[in-house]
Specification:
seven-stranded antiparallel β-sheet, about 35% helix, six-stranded antiparallel β-sheet, about 325 residues
């Protein structure tokens, strides 16, 4: 298992204190300790804590280890190593966490991997320079005070299954309501990958707003991106029209050449066609000779689209079939 503790400082390149724990077979504590000491170049005993010998794995003190009660402990700090030993001795471990127990009870028992993130604890670990801002973002996103997430990876005869559960999401649970994928009928059976999203416009907007409020550079970058998009005919109103419904990305392969198609469901095919045509003409004027000219092409099903051949092997094609755009 791997556990990350604090503190965490936004913008810092320093890694947070981390603890790794590996279960040891019964009666093999001494053997494991001997092998680790032999393999760790420069490993030296630095202290004894609660009857457990502590070792420094290197000369700079950035890695510490110990073997205690059937477990090998590896930590980035000696203090964290001591805390882990004390917690195990006293029983004050994550095993007592009601949030962890509640989340793991909804996951398969026979899992290859399980993980758990305590959003509340994570927020409290964030350094003073950004802690309050992060808390505000979590509150604005609708997360409850005991929000947590757990996930598992389980082996099955036909592959692996991933399951995730969340608790106390509060209003955040209803901000992205569940939906039934509706664009799969546009994906060929030979597709190698498919991802569908609902209301991408609102999801991105909600994610950017708190980030822009906290970071002036992000705010400037988003403003510049909006300016460029407006130049090619994709102002916020147009983006909202295109991405307020269902949108999907489909990856197919023709031999060794992959093809990526964006499938966008809108409620007004004529308006969608007008927006894409405007983007085509403005993008051509904006890019000049760097973008090969578009030419009309028959796409099947009575749909006429437009294609720009970037190279003999690659091109950009779009068309609108009913109320669905394909790019």
């Amino acid at each position: 298992a791997i556990a990350v503790t604090g503190p965490i400082t936004p913008g810092s390149t320093d890694a947070p204190p981390t603890l790794a724990v590996v279960d040891i077979a019964t009666g093999k504590d001494a053997d494991v300790l001997t092998r680790v000491r032999e393999s760790a170049d420069g490993a030296t005993k630095v202290a004894t804590f609660e009857g457990v010998d502590l070792y420094s794995a290197d000369g700079d003190g950035s890695s510490h280890f110990a073997v205690a009660d059937g477990a090998f402990l590896l930590s980035s700090t000696q203090d964290l190593l001591k805390s882990a030993i004390t917690a195990h001795t006293s029983g004050a471990t994550m095993a007592r966490s009601q949030k962890l127990t509640k989340a793991f009870s909804s996951l398969p028992a026979e899992a290859i991997v399980q993980d758990f993130v305590d959003f509340t604890a994570l927020t409290n670990l964030v350094g003073e320079s950004g802690g309050e801002e992060v808390k505000k973002q979590l509150r604005s996103a609708g997360f409850g005070p005991d929000a947590a997430l757990a996930a598992s990876l389980t082996a099955e005869p036909a592959g692996v299954r991933v399951k995730a559960v969340a608790i106390d999401l509060g209003a955040a649970a209803t901000q992205n309501p569940s939906f039934t994928p509706s664009l799969v009928t546009r994906a060929p059976a030979s597709a190698v990958a498919y991802v569908e999203m609902a209301n991408l416009y609102e999801t991105v907007r909600r994610g950017l707003e708190p980030a822009m409020a906290q970071d002036e550079q992000i705010k400037t970058g988003v403003g510049q991106a909006r300016g460029v998009l407006a130049l090619v005919g994709l102002a916020p109103a147009e983006l909202k029209h295109l991405f307020s419904g269902a949108s999907a990305v489909v990856v197919t392969a023709d031999g060794t050449k992959p093809a990526v198609t964006a499938v966008i469901g809108t409620g007004d095919g004529a308006k969608t066609q007008s927006i894409l045509d405007t983007v085509r003409t403005k993008a051509a004027a904006f890019a000049g000779t760097k973008l090969p000219a578009f030419a009309q092409v028959a796409l099947g099903n009575g749909v006429t689209g437009w294609e720009s051949k970037a190279s003999p092997e690659a091109s950009i094609v779009y068309g609108v079939d009913g109320t669905t755009a394909l790019i």
